[in-house]
Design a protein that fits this description.
Layout: H1 3-14, H2 36-102, E1 105-109, E2 117-119, E3 126-127, E4 132-137, E5 141-142, E6 147-149, E7 154-164, E8 172-178, E9 181-188, E10 196-206, E11 211-216, E12 222-224, E13 231-239
């Protein structure tokens, strides 16, 4: 019961004492006024009720103060948890990205479809575009340009294989090229009346953004069809921060 309601109840009950006072002769008085003793009793009850109510208010205020402290503590803890969650999310994102760049491998063949054809001879060294993509994990190889671009610093291994039909007119010769510089060369010199093939490979340290591709030398040619005799492949061996 609230303080106001309790006071109203006390005041209302006090009127029950009307006319119950004793006069000087010891007889009940017919006066409608409250007896002083009754008023004093009501005031004592009101004072006691107010004191009890104040004690309860003080208790609730202390409890509310403690709750506010607990709420602030929980808010700070929640803020710290949010910071930790963001940190873990960033760390997880970094690990996922690192794992993705470590997964780099591709394998391609020269012709995607169609009948057999010769590539070359050309008047200048020409980059070969291997259009048939067998696998391209990490998407570092571009089938539109024939160029592999290193996504991360590390040691990579590359392999090239070529094939040529014997005609007695041209030789087959290609090079694995890094940023415009030839690294290794595969060459087929037909000394007998038969088809020929050649291959070569290299392991090389690349910086992120370095390009590797295959160049057909000028005045040379190769032959390919949907049997995919001519291939270009590579993969990341390991990353390097040194």
């Amino acid at each position: 019961m609230g303080t106001a309601g309790f006071l109203v109840l006390l005041l209302s009950s006090s009127f029950l004492f009307e006319g119950n006072c004793l006069d000087d002769s010891g007889q009940k008085s017919e006066s409608s006024e409250l007896c002083p003793s009754d008023i004093e009793s009501v005031l004592r009850q009101m004072s006691a009720a107010l004191s009890a109510q104040q004690v309860e208010i003080n208790h609730l205020q202390e409890e509310n103060k403690e709750n506010k402290v607990e709420i602030r503590h929980l808010q700070e803890e929640n803020k710290e948890n949010k910071v930790e969650i963001r940190h873990l999310q960033e760390e997880n994102k970094h690990l996922l990205l690192e794992n993705q760049v470590r997964q780099v491998a591709f394998s391609t063949a020269l012709m995607e479809s169609g009948g057999g054809q010769f590539f070359g001879p050309y008047s200048t060294d020409t980059t070969l575009v291997y259009k048939h993509v067998i696998t391209n994990t990490g998407n570092a190889y571009n089938p539109l340009t024939g160029i592999f671009t290193a996504p991360v610093r590390g040691v990579y291994h590359f392999h090239v294989h070529i094939f040529e039909l014997f005609t007695g007119s041209y030789f087959a010769r290609v090079s694995l090229v890094k940023n415009g510089s030839k690294m290794v060369t595969a060459q087929e010199h037909q000394s007998t009346r038969s088809n020929g093939a050649a291959s070569n490979s290299v392991s090389v340290l690349l910086e992120a953004g370095d390009e590797v591709y295959v160049v057909l030398w000028s005045s040379h040619r190769i032959f390919d069809d949907t049997n995919h005799y001519n291939t270009f492949s590579g993969h990341l061996l390991f990353t390097s921060d040194l």
